[in-house]
Amino acid sequence: MPFSLLVSWRYITANRLQTLLLVLGVALSVVVFVFITALINGLNIYLTQETTSKIAHVELDPPSRVARVLVDDSRFVAQPVSTLQRKQIRNWQQVIEIAESTPGVSVISPIVEGNAFLVRGEATQPIAIQGVEPNKVDAITNISRYIIEGSAELTTGGLIIGADLATELGLLIGTPVLLRSERGAERLLPITGIFRIGLANLDQRVGFLSIRAARPLFDLPDGITSLGLKLDNPAEAPTISIMLQNATQLKATPWQEVNKSLQDATDAQGRTGNFIQGFALLAIVISISSALLLSTYRRRAEIGIMRATGISRQFVAIVFILQGVFIGALGAFLGAAAGYQLCVQLASITRPDGSSMLPIAPNEGGYMLVIILTIIGAALAALLPARAASAVDPVEAIQQ
Amino acid sequence: MSQTLLLAKDIIKTFRNGEQETCVLKGIDLTLTQGKMIALQGASGSGKSTLLNILGLLMRPTSGELRLLDHALTGLSDGSLSSYRNRHLGFVFQYHNLLPDFTALENVAFPAAAPAGRLTGDIRKRALELLDKVGLSDRSHFLASQLSGGQKQRVAIARSLINNPKLVFADEPTGNLDQDSAKQVMALLRDINRNDNTTFLISTHDNSVAANCDEIVRIIDGKIAN
Ligand SMILES: Nc1ncnc2c1ncn2[C@@H]1O[C@H](COP(=O)(O)OP(=O)(O)O)[C@@H](O)[C@H]1O
Ligand SMILES: [Mg+2]
Questions:
Q1: Domain extents for chain A?
Q2: At a CB cut-off of 8 Å and minimum separation 6, what does B103 contact?
Q3: Contact predicate A209/A115, CB 8 Å
Q4: Which residues form the ABC3 transporter permease C-terminal domain (chain A) (predicted)?
């Protein structure tokens, strides 16, 4: 064992109570760091899961296309263009094959979507119709899970709508309602399911229909309007989007692009977390620095003896830096272990329905990071005391 | 023939406290020959410690020249002086001699182990031999804080010898001891001086200590009196 290590270990074990308190103080700061890291990461995971479980991870749409000019006449200031121009994917079977062979893609759902009105007596409400294959009704959003009345069965040709829309029009299961599409087609359909997902725009404005029932309404006998994809790992959506866009010439949109506010929210949480982490580290540095500074003062005469016998300034400085590193390492490992235990305990507290009270992720406590930062911080904290110790003048110290 | 170990020429030391200047050493000339045990006598406050600190390279003189073992030492850096001190000089002080949280053995070994980086088997063996020489081999694993005053000074003497110095400075080594312990310590220094030919410069204001030495150097009013 290097002699400097022996000397610094002897110093920190000479006053056990003081060292214990110091290590506990460091450990406490580490617990705060771990707790806040696990909480923020857990919150991000929870929010991301909540979002990605309800939407497509990648959406494939026909590429944007300039609308056809209806009358080419320079007398018009604004030339009328066809807004009824259909954008559709005709070769969608082929696109499905490409998507199926792309690694990381788990589910592919062809969709015929369009805008329509629900008319009941005098009342009219706009609705965005999603025509999906009946066996894929749960592929993008798990509708079955959110059904509060009726069922998610689409094969019977009925319409599934959100609870808010149902209330507004006074619709119950079995009530027939007139659906008028943007193409002017009309159909009388029964309500077969009512869902409540908890997202206002879904519960108020979206309805599900089988793709077969949707085709005549939107005048799409063969083509589809988009493809919704689910991935094994939602975080890979941007890279997989680029791959699919290149392979299919369709416009591929990763979910992150349509949910910028989620990114903003998790970024803001991250910054709050960094702030608290910074304070926890600062507390570690200050407590170690002040304790060691006090120790250099108490041991002035001893340092003077060492210097008088010709022991170098560097040796004295290293002894004090190593003391800081020992205290930092002990506190870091103790705090990381205690912080993990705390997070596990907190994560196991559940609501009556079995879900976790705190969205804390015990495995995401930043343990490696906090241990490394604490040890580096402790070494830096010891620099000032080490300088003070190595500057002790032997003559003054011995004559005291 | 006996060889010149230390040569000091016209050493002047002035302390400055703000406006006030005190000239403590007013031109000291001194030659120490190898193998002698020399007493440095003088009243309290006469400058004995100041002179020992300067000769022992712990303090720089205001002016004057110093040669040790035929090396000119004026103008060396703090680091070089420290390393020179470690390799060639030994020290015994009146108070604060040992590191209380280390054993007697570790205290003796310290000035050798720190520069070596490790407390090697050789250093440990040499430290044990020295503890045996000062009659404390049975106390080698006692913490310094558990030793009596006389035992502490004997450990300090063992420590001063660990790097085989030619010259050992002892600043009132018995000043803090009872009469019996003081006698024991002086007898020990005498022994080491006779057996190993180690040179000692011992400051004291005690006549009985001085009587034990080969030579007496008196410091009066900042100068060496003849
Ligand atoms: N750092 C210092 N600053 C000012 N005066 C000092 C300092 N060190 C010693 N002195 C003075 O120098 C004189 C000699 O001190 P010292 O060498 O300790 O004497 P001795 O060891 O013979 O008792 C004393 O008057 C003391 O007050
Ligand atoms: Mg003195």
A1: 3-51+262-399, 61-258
A2: B140, B141, B142, B143, B144
A3: no
A4: 275-389
Q: Provide DSSP, chain B.
A: ---EEEEEEEEEEEEEETTEEEEEEEEEEEEEETT-EEEEE--TTSSHHHHHHHHTTSS--SEEEEEETTEE-TT--HHHHHHHHHHHEEEE-SSS-S-TTSBHHHHHHHHHHHHHSB--HHHHHHHHHHHHHTT-GGGTTSBGGGS-HHHHHHHHHHHHTTT--SEEEEESTTTTS-HHHHHHHHHHHHHHHHHH--EEEEEES-HHHHHTSSEEEEEETTEEE-
Does pTM surpass 0.90?
A: no
- How many whole angstroms from B45 Cα to the centroid of ligand 2? 7
C-alpha closest to that of A358 among A37, A15, A43: A43
Cα gap A12→B146, rounded to integer Å: 19
Over range A221-244, report the average pLDDT.
92
Query: What's the pLDDT score for residue B2?
Result: 66
The pLDDT of residue A67 is 52
Strand partners, A109: A228
Closest chain A residue to the Cα of B112, Cα to Cα:
A311
Ligand 1 atom 26, closest CA: B45
A143 has a pLDDT exceeding 70:
yes
**pLDDT band for position A352 (50/70/90)?**
confident
Report chain B residues whose CB lies below 8 A from the CB of A10: 101-102
Question: Are the beta carbons of A359 and A347 closer than 8 angstroms?
Answer: no
Give the integer Cα–Cα distance in Å for B200 and B213: 9
**Residue in A3, A4, A15, A299 to test binding to B, most B beta-carbons within 10 Å:** A3
Q: Whose CA is nearest to atom 5 of ligand 1?
A: B15
CA of B154 to the centre of ligand 1 (A): 26
Residue B175: the pLDDT is 87
Single out the residue of A262, A232, A152 nearest to residue A197, CA to CA.
Answer: A152
Convert the pLDDT of each residue in A321-334 to its tens digit: 999 999 999 999 99
Residue with tokens 């009146």: B94
Helix A313-347 vs helix A3-14: angle between axes, to the nearest 10 degrees? Answer: 60
* Domain spans in chain B, listed from the N-terminal domain onward: 36-48+78-218
Query: What single letter denotes the amino acid at residue A291?
Result: A
ipTM: 0.94
> Which of B82, B87, B69, B72 has the alpha carbon at shortest distance from B32?
B69
Q: Measured between alpha carbons, how far is B6 from B167 in angstroms, rounded to an integer?
A: 9
Helix axes A313-347, A16-52, angle to 10 degrees: 50
> Which candidate, B52, B75, B49, places its Cα nearest to that of B64?
B75
Does B113 contact A14 at a Cβ distance shorter than 8 Å?
no
d(CA B188, CA B173): 12
Q: How confident is the model at residue A75 (pLDDT cuts 50, 70, 90)?
A: low
Q: Is the CB of residue A101 less than 8 Å away from at least one CB of chain B?
A: no
Question: What's the mean pLDDT when you consider all of chain B?
Answer: 92
Which CATH number is B36-48+78-218's, of 3.40.50.300, 3.10.310.10, 1.10.472.10, 3.30.540.10?
A: 3.40.50.300
